[in-house]
Structure formats: C-alpha cells, structure tokens
Amino acid sequence: MPAFLIYPTDTHLPMFSRPLSRTLLCVTLSTCSLPIFADTVWLKNGDRLTGKISVLDGGKLLIETEYGGSIPVKWSQVATLESNQQLLVKVDAASGEVAKSLQAASDGMVTLSNGGAPRTVPLKSITQIIHPKPIIQDLTWKGNVDMALDYKRAETDTDDYDISFKTSARHGLWRHNGSGGYNREYRDGVTATDNWEAEYALDRFLDEHWFWQGRLEYKRDKIEDVRRQRTIGTGPGYQFWDNELGAFSLASLANRSDYEFASGNTEEFYSLAMKWNYNRYLVGKTFEIFSNGEIGKPLENVADYELDAEMGLRYKVTDWASLNMKAEKDIVSGAESDLDETRYSIGFGVGW
Q1: Predicted model pTM
Q2: What contacts 109, CB < 8 A, 6 or more positions away?
Q3: How far apart are the first and last CA of the chain?
Q4: Residues 210-236: pLDDT tens digits?
Q5: pLDDT digits (tens, 9 = 90+) for 27-58
Q6: pLDDT per residue over 252-285, tens digit each?
Q7: How far is the CA of 144 from the CAs of 147, 149, 196, 220, 321, in angstroms?
Q8: 140-351 has which fold?
Q9: Quick one: pLDDT band at residue 167, thresholds 50, 70, 90?
Q10: What is the DSSP letter of 338?
C-alpha cells in the first residue's frame, strides 16, 4: 500500500526543508512501488511480461504472474530477459550451470551471472531453465487427486466409479509418501468390481540421491479370489532427479506379505521387489506423463510374481485442474488363485 509523507505548510518553514521533504516523498513512493522479486521478459513484438520465471522446457517458457496465473510463452518469441533468482540453465542440451542471476542483453541474447565473469549466450542455445533443488529444504507438499465416472446404457448397463490420490511431503532429509485408490463397478445392478488400497512410505535421504525407505501397504478386494493383501517392507532407493520438470526414483525392497483368499486360506511369505516412481512435464508443463508401480518375486513357492502398476497422461487445463487418462494393471501369477485385472479410465483431477 503506498506510503505518503505529510509535511507542514507553515510559511515560516525554512525554504531548504521543502525540497528535502519532496525528495523524501518521491523516494518513499518509488521504493513502495517497486515489485518484489519480479522477473522481466521482453518479447520480440515489443511487449513486456513481469512475474516469476517457473520453467523453460519444450520450447515454452512458463511465467507465474499475479494478474494472469501461469502464462506460457514461445521461447522463439523472447527477445531477452532478466531475473534475480538462482536458476539452473542448460546450454546446448549438454552442459548446465547455476546462474545467480540473468541480465538482459541485446536481442536474442542473455547474460548469465554466477559469481565469476558474466557470460553472454544466445537464447537459442538455451534448452532448459529450472529451479535447482537443495538437499536440505523447507517443507514442500505436492500431490494430485484423480476422479473418473463412467455410465454406459446399452445391452449391459455399466456404472463405474474410480478415485485415486497420491501425495508427498518433504522436510529436510525426510520425505513422506501417501497414495490410495477406490474402484467400484456395477453391471446391470450387480457389483462386478469393489476394491480399495492404501500405502504409506517414509524416505530418509542419505545424500542428494540415495535414500532408505520403509513402507506399509494394504489392499482389500471383495470380488476377486485374493481378498486381502498386507505388505511391510524396507530397502534402499535412488533418486535420479527431482526438479521442476519431474522426478524419477527406484527403490529395492525386502517385503513381508500376507495374502488372504476367498476360500479362507492364507499365505505368508517374503519377497524381493522393485518400485518405480516417474513423472515428466512436457510443453511448458501443459502435459504430464506418469508411471509408478512395483514388481516383486516371492522367495517361497507361493507365487511366480506379482505386479501392481499404472501409467497415464495428464493435460493441464488450469493451474490446479487437469484431464487425465490412465491404465492400471494388477497381477498375481502362480498363486493358489491368480489375479489378472486391467482398468482404463478417463477423468478429471486436481493438483497442488
């Protein structure tokens, strides 16, 4: 909110104090009107955008603004830009450097300042700009909820409901991961699918990439022969990358699992498993490809292998809303009662 200085108008006030008061007024108004931590992008058509540079990828520069939300700009239409943020700039798709600031230069150029001698490079040589992530950081929380409804009225009436969520929160060297889902399907009024699942995993980072994970998982199915699955596991993992453009990690776990079948029989066994978690944003974060899952091999002769995986695509409609399509696969092969289930869904989601 602008600040004003009120100075007296007494005719006995010394003349030199009036210009001084006016000078202080101008300085105060100028200081209050300056944007805080604003980046500037100049376009080739003469327009100028101010906000916060989010990411450059796939030929699109994404700028976060107070007046228009996230604005994607074609990188080929940018004349120059400046920023006081610390940004990771990738030049010629081969080398990257952390620039403490970007300074405007002549058309088609930008100056990178990293504490040493400034370096001016062509904009066309820059392929990516992202925010570097330190290993020690304050609390960050991200996640998404996807929903899908399918109503079909034909020779066989079908009503299908599907909802899933995935979230993670990181504070310092600790990362909490949660996920879950519910699926129910009716065919001509008869329940054909009714299951839900939930998982919690805790990661402790040992350095920038390596971490140790402990996890708990529970699955409940009222229709298939494998009615309950309970799993507890632990093991090392590796975070290949985690930045503005996405993340990819693998974890190798030793699990203890309990299966309960529709017949009432139970199986308890140990297994080795590999988990993956992958997502990648494309075209200025307009699209997102994602895949996560787990494949395991029991150490005892109770099953050949088990697979729980999903993959899909999201299209960002607004800053928080998206359309998604997803394929999910659940397999338990070689057990007393096999499970082989595939689900496809198209729906709406929210993210943060």
Answers
A1: 0.72
A2: 80, 120, 121, 122, 123
A3: 29
A4: 999 999 999 999 988 889 999 999 999
A5: 444 444 444 558 999 999 999 999 999 998 88
A6: 999 999 989 888 888 898 999 999 999 999 987 8
A7: 10, 17, 17, 22, 9
A8: Porin (2.40.160)
A9: very high
A10: -
- Name the token pair of 205: 């980072």
Q: Where in the chain is the domain with CATH 2.40.160.40?
A: 140-351
What tokens does 29 get? 């108004």
